[in-house]
From TrEMBL:
<dbReference type="InterPro" id="IPR003018">
    <property type="entry name" value="GAF"/>
</dbReference>
<dbReference type="InterPro" id="IPR029016">
    <property type="entry name" value="GAF-like_dom_sf"/>
</dbReference>
<keyword id="KW-0808">Transferase</keyword>
<protein>
    <recommendedName>
        <fullName>histidine kinase</fullName>
        <ecNumber>2.7.13.3</ecNumber>
    </recommendedName>
</protein>
<keyword id="KW-0418">Kinase</keyword>
<dbReference type="InterPro" id="IPR005467">
    <property type="entry name" value="His_kinase_dom"/>
</dbReference>
<dbReference type="InterPro" id="IPR003661">
    <property type="entry name" value="HisK_dim/P_dom"/>
</dbReference>
<dbReference type="InterPro" id="IPR004358">
    <property type="entry name" value="Sig_transdc_His_kin-like_C"/>
</dbReference>
<dbReference type="InterPro" id="IPR050736">
    <property type="entry name" value="Sensor_HK_Regulatory"/>
</dbReference>
<dbReference type="Pfam" id="PF01590">
    <property type="entry name" value="GAF"/>
</dbReference>
<keyword id="KW-0597">Phosphoprotein</keyword>
<dbReference type="InterPro" id="IPR036097">
    <property type="entry name" value="HisK_dim/P_sf"/>
</dbReference>
<feature type="domain" description="Histidine kinase">
    <location>
        <begin position="188"/>
        <end position="400"/>
    </location>
</feature>
<dbReference type="Pfam" id="PF00512">
    <property type="entry name" value="HisKA"/>
</dbReference>
<keyword id="KW-0902">Two-component regulatory system</keyword>
<dbReference type="GO" id="GO:0000155">
    <property type="term" value="F:phosphorelay sensor kinase activity"/>
</dbReference>
<dbReference type="Pfam" id="PF02518">
    <property type="entry name" value="HATPase_c"/>
</dbReference>
Length: 405
């Protein structure tokens, strides 16, 4: 057998070998090809203008060529098929009018030979599917060629599928790496903003103790309001980072007997901040509740603010909070409707679309609310349609005392 010197293979051919190796059907295809041709050696070969390389082999002949093995390109009939992509088949070379004097059968001691081209789906030539034997064979040439062409087409289609899969994996990995870096950047940014923000807040408090004009008082109020808004944004960013990079938003679970009063304060604060004085609240929390009251207040504030900003302005917002032995159920309803195609991603971060009207905030409120619900071993769901409006439901089971630590 005239193997070529072990010339280094290029990265592209190595990748081609790996792609064929990843096709689980190839070994069965080669075994079937050997069976229908009566040959004891079958192979998938990558054929270029400089290389003949075995990508997969089936060998009971003792031909001695394994995966990655090379033949001298010019010594093969596959090189002729590369130049003029047509099947070649003969069952008895020494009696064939053309191949009796051909150099390939004489060089490799071949009597029977079948080879068909393999094309990628884009039409480019990949190589050949071939079968050889040192003994003559009797077969229906037309039927064998049709069968091998079908197998070659399957291999070509598998190649494209594998390429697309590998590309998708690479794209997904790159996107994931980018997402992790982005989330880490956001976490560092949020953390580093806290120090200058605290310094600005302290400076503002000190300035408020100093004598100032009416205009100065007005400017200080604007500064204080801006710092409050920035502080809220930074907290949202840090909560987002904790949810994405850590184990979720942390909660400090304690038995709190003043949850109802704290939640009612949230109602008044949101009403004042949004100008919505039509929030109808029913809060029935009669017993101490095992929860993180500050986080529940944040969840409620996010839901009420969302209802105030996105709900119908001419219909009231209703809040209903009830507790029993099974836990707590909190419902916020507004008269607006959410488009069906947005419901599925409503609790994902930055879900606001570019086409949406510009609004304050980062679009993290509902995501953070869902993370707070999860941290309480609860769920946050939404249902919405034009006839009934939009209802957010937070359901928190009664948390066992063992989880309070």
């Amino acid at each position: 057998m005239q193997q070529s010197a072990a010339a280094p293979l290029g990265a592209d051919i190595i990748q081609d070998i790996a792609e064929i190796g990843a096709i689980t059907a190839v070994p069965r295809i080669l075994e079937t090809v050997a069976h229908i041709t009566g040959s004891r050696f079958a192979a998938v070969a990558r054929v270029t203008d400089s290389h003949w390389v075995a990508c997969a082999t089936y060998d009971t002949l003792g031909f001695g060529l394994g995966v990655g093995g090379q033949l001298v390109l010019e010594s093969t009939i596959c090189n002729e098929i590369r130049q003029a992509p047509q099947p070649v088949i003969f069952g008895h070379a020494s009696q064939h009018p053309h191949y009796a004097s051909h150099h390939t059968p004489r060089l490799y001691g071949l009597e029977s030979y079948v080879s068909v081209p393999i094309f990628r789906p884009d039409g480019s030539f990949f190589g050949t599917l071939c079968a050889i034997d040192s003994a003559p064979a009797t077969f229906d040439e037309a039927q064998v060629v049709r069968s091998l062409e079908l197998f070659a087409e399957l291999i070509g289609n598998y190649l494209q599928t594998e390429q697309r899969l590998q590309q998708a994996i690479a794209d997904l990995s790159a996107a994931n790496d980018t997402a992790v870096l982005r989330d880490q950047f956001i976490a560092v940014l949020g953390h580093d903003l806290r120090s200058p923000l605290q310094a600005a807040s302290m400076a503002t408090e000190m300035l408020e103790l100093e004598p100032h004009t009416e205009r100065g008082s007005m400017l200080l109020t604007r500064v204080r309001d801006s710092i409050t808004r920035i502080d809220g944004l930074v907290k949202d960013v840090l909560d987002f980072a904790r949810g994405r990079l850590g184990g979720g938003i942390p909660v400090a679970l304690t038995y709190d007997a003043n949850v109802a009063a704290q939640l009612m304060r949230v109602v008044h604060e949101v009403a004042g901040a949004t100008g919505r004085n039509d929030i109808i609240a029913t809060i029935a929390v009669d017993a101490p509740l095992l929860c993180d009251a500050n986080r529940l207040s944040q969840l409620l504030a996010n839901l009420l603010t969302n209802a105030a900003v996105h709900g119908a302005a001419d219909q009231p917002i209703t809040l209903d909070i009830q507790t029993d032995a099974n836990g707590l159920v909190l419902q916020v309803h507004n008269g607006g409707a959410i488009a069906p195609d947005k419901l599925g991603r409503l609790f994902t971060p930055f879900s606001r679309e570019a086409s949406d009207q510009p609004r304050p905030g980062l679009g993290l409120g509902l995501y953070i609310a869902a993370e707070i619900a999860k941290a309480h071993n609860g769920t946050l769901s939404v249902e919405s349609d034009a006839a009934h409006g939009t209802r957010f439901v937070f359901a928190m089971p009664a948390i066992p005392l063992a989880l309070a630590g």
